[in-house]
Design goal:
749 residues, alpha+beta, Tachylectin-2, Chain A, Spore Coat Polysaccharide Biosynthesis Protein SpsA, Chain A, 3 domains, 7-stranded mixed β-sheet, 4-stranded antiparallel β-sheet, 14 helices, globular, membrane, manganese, GINT1_N, metal-binding, disulfide bond
Length: 749
Amino acid sequence: MGEKKSVRPVRSRGFWGSMSPRIGLARGWSFLGRSPFPVAFLLGSMTASGLVAVVFYWFVVSASRRTPDPALVGCRPDSEGSWSVGVFYGKSPFSLSPIELHGSSNPNSSAWPIANPVLTCAAPSSAGYPSNFVADPFLYLQDSVLYLFFESKSTTAMKGDIGVARSFDHGGTWEFLGIALEEPWHLSYPFVFSYQNQIYMMPEGNKKGELRLYRAVKFPLKWTLEKVIIRKPLIDASLIQYEGNYWLFGSDFSRFGVEKNAELEIWYSSSPLGPWKQHPRNPIYRIDKSLGARNGGRPFIYEGSLYRLGQDCSETYGRRLQIYKIEKLNKEEFQEVPANLRIEESKKGRNAWNGIRHHHLDTQQLPSGNWIAVMDGDRVPSGDSIRRFITGCTYTLLLFFLVMVMSILVGAANCCMASNRRHEYSWLRTRMHMNFRARRYITCIKSYGSSIRSRVNPKTCTGKLVLSLLVLLGISFVCMSVHFLTEGNGAEEAYIYEGQYSQFTMVTMTYEARLWNLKLYVKHYSQCESVREIVVVWNKGKPPSESEFDSAVPVRIRVEEQNSLNNRFKVDPLIKTRAVLELDDDILMTCNDIEKGFRVWRENPERLVGFYPRLIDGSPLQYRNERYARGKNGYNVILTGAAFMDSEYAFNKYWSEIAREGRNFVDHSFNCEDLLMNFLYANASAVRTVEYVHPAWAIDTSKLSTAAISRNTQVHYDIRTNCLSKFLSLYGSLPSRWEFGTRVDGWDR
């Protein structure tokens, strides 16, 4: 027998360790090649993408991103939308216009005027009932008091409850009373009506599979189930008494073959308590959801004709309201034709509370003979939050694939097999489950990569151009991904104050040489939610036509006889808001910053609230730039080239007899009207008169043209220093200073 050989134990090296003796890591599967260049390329791509994302977020997204509003604590984004409720008035249901056009005001909330929406998720949320949105409003009139019943989407239970609010001033201000009705299932569409001295509510609760009728035990907060009137999951059921019968309109989407939001049924009875019988033509509609089949509010009778409100759901759920005049309605027939509701849709898109959709209206006649209506609206389409998330993720994936394509072009990626030996293919087939088709795909990828590199050589001009275009495409993918994933609903919303919204008028002064500035200005700022009107003070030259402007709000050209800077503050009886934003036509800021400034002004309407602070001090007084104020950490002047003010107080003060000599000096210097306004404010008050709001960014478009008023900065500063000396002698000193960064919200840092 031969000598026994000793067996040396072999330590297991795992999958990749056992793989390396056969094909080796260096010769096996390789996507990134063998050199450190591929790793550096991918790390560089990731770093560059991250830097682009940070820069885009900092300069673009954060500038327009809404600061969390403490008044909206409890409200949460919801895939169903961000519904709120507005009030409309008119002499008829076909001449309704929003509350802000009717002069309703509330000094307690600095709302001159009160503006829609008048009820938001803030009302139930601040009362301890966290709500994502409020929708489906119904009015109930009791003497001179208005009650508003509505769906409130619970943040905790994620279902609808029925809330109720009360108004003593015809719908201008609302007091949230509480949750009137709550069930284990979702409730909405609280159709409230009276019958035989009793008050009833017929809410939608289709998840229960039946239509229930509740009776008020202690109006408006306590209700009891009266009866189940129809054992079907009817949606948005409405009823009305017409020609001796009660008629009920509703939708049953549980029918086989019925498209959602496209079905309408009619039922009739001699009493709202039933029994109810189906109309022989049911279902009236069943296939086209653009026809307004789903109800959109309470039917009403006007001048002897019956009208029904329906929802156009063709583009998205609840896109808009449609109204129909019912020409035939009896136990055998039904016929309706479209009518015109004449409610103008907002042109501000997502920046308007109802800019994207509105799907419910309840209009009723007041004892005065006029009509009031409540309508819900939303600034985003249905499913917007989910859609934006998916879109953002899609752009991220596109960026990943683009990086892979670029890596192939520059030779950083090499998807191939390092060896073609038969036993190695066999080993891969058994150990990595690779079949012939997979190997063929890999070979094709390698072939395509080689073909692309041969045709688009990065070292040639064509190759460099292609790579440059791919880099730009990658940057756009990064920006779009950040935009959709981090920018919320994409709206620059107004800020609520004391439970209410308001509006302001923008005033700018210009002349013919700056017309291109003005058109850009109007198009941009007319999209801001709280802007009511833009007044252009035309100082010189032939004025443009108002139709030349692309504007979402009315534009009024006020032509002046004399070219004077004092015209900026001229008393204008046609201005319908107390708040005025004086803003030079060469300044561009975000609507979000403008809305912040308006909110701060509403907190302190007796102050000048603006975006450009200055510190005037020294002996003698000297005019300096904002950098000086920052260095001293304080300011005592706000430039009125970008400032909110009370038009009634400020304009009358500026044109008072005491300001005559100051105005003459402004005309003489053709400068300093803003400094004069600051002196007049300081002279009339012993308390703080100015407040600063820090804009995320501001662009001076005058630098892009030859029409700037003050080209020589030093000469401009010398003139203003001379003005300070004059105004000091006329009106006394300015206050010492107020520090930056004293606001809790940090808007003045």
